[in-house]
Design a protein that fits this description.
conserved putative lor/sdh protein from methanococcus maripaludis s2 fold, 4 domains, six-stranded antiparallel beta barrel, four-stranded antiparallel β-sheet, 31% strand
């Protein structure tokens, strides 16, 4: 009986030990199977894509069905395409390898530099013609060839005219009658005689005789059949239109004289530069004849019509030329520098608060008044498009010209996001204003003090494109991560670039 009890106890102990061993093995097998299942699930969730066609998604390595390139793995932990603003986080070493540089968003007044070309031309307001004011024969031309400098009042032409003889006789008779009536008490007759004398003198003046010539005829008391025509201005004879012995009619042009102490520079400004150009601006230019020397003038006219062939606008610059070094048809390279305020307005400290003539930009006054040349009322410089330099309400936001990635109507800037352990860059659409020199004016999308990527931004954008996330070229990112099974199914279509604006928002930049 005791032996049977002992055997029973031993059998029961063996059964319990065997059951416990079987349970531990099952648990170990279960844990192993769980680990194997997790690894399998992880392998199943690994997605492979094409670096050229990020819309391709596959669950295992292979070739791209579109271009045949090897597929590359996509990190499953990355943000989904189109979810919020695109960001890219890299290590410090990767940042150095990508050569990423940043610069702060600042406020200021940038300077735009506009380069133009053109030529020197005659000042049309200082070109005079010597014409025959009465018909006759040119018996003597005192200037024999073009290019001769003359001074105002120099004798130019000796002309024979029978009409002049009869007009001189009328003057002589009227002068004699006025002399006889000088002591007369008949006031009516004396006034009539003086009126006749004045009419005879006026007729000769209209025919080009000077007051000195008229007095000489009166004193001489005898008519002459020749008269002399004098130079109306000082300058250079640039054209000789007649020959000695020619018979001419009233109005026939004999000489052309140009005053070269003041010339024009005619320049061509591109259509895209017109926003920086204003009437009265200072222009600095050089010519080939005098390398290293600069000349200055002021814009006096802006053509209201654009040349449709060259897409340029003609500008006219008034230039003083007292020593005559600048000669018509000389080639000119000119520069206009404009200091830019908010909304692309132009600041010119030299013209701040001044009054200027709308016809003659060299006439600038501190107070309102009239132009000393043409008599037109002066206007304020603000009415011509200038703003005061002290200062406008707020200086514009500026970023370096290398910061934005511009494509079509969109501009994307990558901003360094603060508060991260590793370098993190966020893509952002901005509204750009005009470019001024090496800077862009930012109208919307950034704040002062933020740091934008100025070098390496294209590399950041390229990585986002590879990961099928919103980027410069595709604001919506790639297609949803549908898996391509390589089983003959059609590849998922690429994202339609016109389907919407995506994470980066609508196209706002100009």
């Amino acid at each position: 009986m005791r032996k049977a009890r002992i055997v029973f106890i031993l059998l029961l102990a063996a059964f319990v030990l065997g059951y416990a061993a079987r349970g531990c093995g099952a648990r170990e097998r279960g844990a192993g199977e769980a680990e194997t299942g997790a690894a399998e699930a992880e392998r199943r969730t690994e997605i492979w894509t094409c670096s050229m066609h990020p819309q391709i998604r596959a669950e295992k390595p292979g070739k791209c069905p579109l271009c045949g390139m090897d597929l590359i793995p996509v990190s499953p932990g990355g943000p989904a395409a189109g979810a919020g603003r695109p960001t890219l986080t890299v290590s410090e070493e990767a940042r150095r390898l990508m050569e990423i540089r940043t610069a702060p968003v600042t406020r200021g007044f940038p300077s735009a530099e506009i380069l133009m070309t053109g030529k020197i031309a005659f000042d049309e307001t200082r070109v005079k013609y010597i014409t025959a004011w009465v018909g006759g024969r040119l018996d003597r031309l005192f200037v024999d060839y073009t290019g001769v400098p003359v001074r105002e009042g120099d004798h130019m032409v000796l002309i024979y005219s029978p009409e002049i003889v009869s007009a001189q006789e009328e003057l002589i008779q009227a002068a004699r009658a006025a002399a006889e009536m000088e002591g007369s008490g008949l006031d009516v007759m004396r006034r009539r005689t003086l009126s006749t004398l004045e009419a005879a003198s006026g007729k000769l003046r209209l025919w080009g005789l000077t007051d000195g010539q008229i007095r000489e005829i009166e004193e001489r008391g005898a008519a002459t059949d020749h008269i002399t025509i004098y130079a109306p201005i000082s300058g250079i004879v640039i054209d000789k239109n007649a020959r000695e012995g020619m018979y001419v009619e009233t109005g026939t042009r004999i000489y052309t004289i140009a005053d070269l102490t003041h010339v024009w520079a005619l320049l061509d400004a591109y259509e895209s530069d017109m926003m920086w150009i204003r009437y009265g601006q200072d222009v600095e230019f050089t010519v080939e004849a005098y390398p290293g020397q600069t000349f200055h003038g002021r814009i006096s006219f802006i053509d209201p019509v654009l040349d449709e062939r060259t897409r340029t606008v003609k500008l006219r610059v008034d230039v003083d030329n007292p020593d005559g070094r600048l000669k018509p048809e000389m080639f000119v390279r000119a520069t206009v520098r404009a200091r830019v305020a908010a909304a692309g307005r132009v600041m010119e400290p030299d013209l701040e608060g001044k009054w200027i003539c709308p016809m003659h930009p060299n006439i600038i006054g501190e107070d309102p008044g009239d132009c000393t040349i043409c008599g037109m009322p002066l206007v304020t410089t603000e009415s011509l498009g200038y703003v005061r330099a002290d200062p406008p309400a707020e200086a514009p936001l500026l970023i370096p010209a290398s910061a934005p990635l511009v494509t079509g109507r969109r501009a994307v800037v990558y901003v360094e996001a603060p508060g991260h352990d590793l370098p993190t860059f966020e893509g952002r659409e901005v509204t750009l204003g005009p470019r001024a020199g090496d800077s862009y004016i930012v109208e919307a999308g950034l704040a002062e003090g933020e740091r934008v990527v100025t070098r390496g931004n294209f590399k950041i954008d390229s990585q986002l494109q590879i990961e099928a996330r919103p980027s410069m070229m595709s604001p919506e990112g790639g297609a949803p991560p549908a898996v391509h099974h390589h089983d003959g199914e059609a590849a998922p279509p690429a994202a339609d670039p016109h389907a919407g604006h995506g994470a980066m928002g609508p196209a706002r930049s100009r």
